[in-house]
Each structure stands twice: as structure tokens, then as C-alpha cells.
Amino acid sequence: MIKFERTGFTTYRLNPIIGQTTTASSMSPDSQTNIIGSSASSPYNDTITSPPPYSPHTSMQSPIPSVPSNTDYPGDYGFTISFSQPSKETKSTTWTYSESLKKLYVRMATTCPIRFKCLRQPPQGCVIRAMPIFMKPEHVQEPVKRCPNHATSKEHNENHPAPTHLCRCEHKLAKFVEDPYTSRQSVLIPHEIPQAGSEWVTNLFQFMCLGSCVGGPNRRPIQIVLTLEKDNQVLGRRAVEVRICACPGRDRKADEKAALPPCKQSPKKGQKVNIINEITTVTPGGKKRKAEDEPFTLSVRGRENYEILCRLRDSLELSSMVPQNQIDVYKQKQLDTNRQWLSMILARENKNKLMKKVKRPQHRPGIKSRT
Ligand SMILES: [Zn+2]
Fold first, then answer.
1. Phi, psi angle pair for 141, to nearest 5°
2. How many CB atoms lie under 10 A from the CB of residue 53?
3. Domain residue limits, the chain
4. Is there a binding annotation on residue 213?
5. pTM score
6. Does the annotation list 139 as a binding residue?
7. pLDDT tens across 209-233, in order?
8. pLDDT tens column, 311-328
């Protein structure tokens, strides 16, 4: 209780996740000690009178270091997450997950089910933490929060204990926390055992800003780091990139197309396409000429032309990798095949001519006999 006041760790509680039997230090999200602050920012001052379920402790182990890890780590208990894809995707799909890009596309303020599983049962009292982080190194130090506009508007915020949090969970026992040292916000839910007959435990999450919100995500790519924790120790971790947008289905398709190798891309009509040509030729000695290693960019109008040029570029690239003696063998083969083909065609034509000559006299008597 005293620790809680000293460190000023702000806990927004909807409900305590685990009952009051939890020790004050057992579930701290942060180990940063000796940070003097006050709990005045907590809307739940009454929590101070009872042992806070999430309070800082004095060890140096912290699930929230200044740069949180986003490395996938199943740990000893095989902590896994998954997304149950909607059976049919429509234009109005509120969320979709791209397996190939390992990226979640979701509309703002709509519920998205994330499924959790442990291959082996972890100890009792484990929690799952969901924390958004910026993905790029230049932004990763900054905590992810909602934009001031959404955080202060009435919509979605009435009676909500954590209006500034980007990531929400609809679990009844969800606890919204903010680390006083890093200012990172996260939501904690209890780790639960799947119900009889089911493999997964599903929790509903919401993302409360658009990726483009100025003063919030501001077009910076975001990941949600989901950790299985017990007594401040991370037992497992999964990270998933999240794009919060107006059209999840459309954006997913566009991203998947863009991720394909250049040749398989089918750009939108009317769009100018840049292709990088790295055409290299092979001299008889097999050495590349320096000047021809230089890459050039070419703008093409129309998908068809673009695809033709792509094929040309690939053929040139591939042929540059083949040794000269193999090219000679190939050319010789081509010549032979062409000759064979020509002689075949000639032979067929000659045969046709002969057939016509033979057929004509045979037909005439048949026609006469009918008339
Ligand atoms: Zn916003």
C-alpha cells in the first residue's frame, strides 16, 4: 500500500483482475523504483485503501523496459495467439488478418477477437498484457496513446476509465494501467483456461484511434505486444502489427499485392508504375560490364505494358546469370529445333498439296452420282 503511494503508479481499474489475496508486489507492470510521484492522477483513489493488485516492486525485472521487446517468444508454456478469420469477407469487414504479412487490419472502435492458447498450463494468477508500441526505431521510445481529439471527445469515452488508451479489452476484469516512468499504457486481463471442448480463449479488443490520427499514431506503424506474465516475469510474448483504418479488407489486399515480387504486382489502373531495371549483360568472358550494372528506373503506362517489360527484365536478368557455354548450347538447340520444325511444316504442306490433288478426282464422281 505504501509502495503504491510512493511510486505513484497509476492504475485505472474497472475491476480487480485477481482478488485482494494478490500481494501488492506480485503483479507490477514495472520495476522502476524510487520514482517519486503521486497517485492523484488515478481516478480511483479508493484503491489505495486496499492492496493494489498492480503496484511497482523493487526488483529490476520489468515487463516494460523503455524499449519493449517485440520478439515472438512462446516460452515454457507455449503461449500462442491466433485470429479466427471471418468465414466470408465483405466490404464491410470490420477486421481481417493477413497470414502472409502477419498483420491485423481493423476498424477503429470495433471489436476484434484475439484468441489465446498455452500448450502447457501456466501457473495460476497469470495475466495477459496488451501494449501498443511504435514499430520504427525512431518512434519506439515514444508511448502510443490516443490522439487528443479522440481522447477528449464524448464518443466511446463516457464512463470509461481510460479514455487515453489506444488499446482496450472488453473483458469484465480488464485493468488499464499506465507506467509512471515510461508513460506506456497497457491493458491487463487474467489468463484463463479454455472452456470445455475448446482450444482457445477469445478476448475482444478495440483500437481507439485511426492509424492516421494526428497527435496519436500519426501514420506510424504500430504493433500490439501481447505478453503472458506472472509476478512481473514475462512467460511468453507475441507481437502483431496492427493497422487501424476505415477499410480493413481493401487495405489488406493492397498491402498483400505490394508485398509480392514486382512482376506479380498488378498495379491499379491509371497508376504510373516505376520499375527498377538492373539489366546486366554477359560478355564472352563471362564478366559483367560495370556501366551496365547501373540501375535505371522506367515509368510505364498501363498494366499490360508493365507486365511485358517485367518479363523482359526477368529474362535478361536470368540470361545474364547463365554461363556462356550453356548459352551456346541453348542457341544450338534452338537452331536445331527451328530446323526440325521448319522441315516438319514443309513436309506437312507438301503432304496437304498431294492430298488435295488426290482428293479432287475422288470427289467428282461422288457429286455426279448424287445429281
Ligand atoms: Zn484519434
1. -70, -25
2. 26
3. 69-251, 261-321, 337-371
4. yes
5. 0.57
6. no
7. 999 999 999 999 999 999 999 998 9
8. 888 777 777 777 777 778
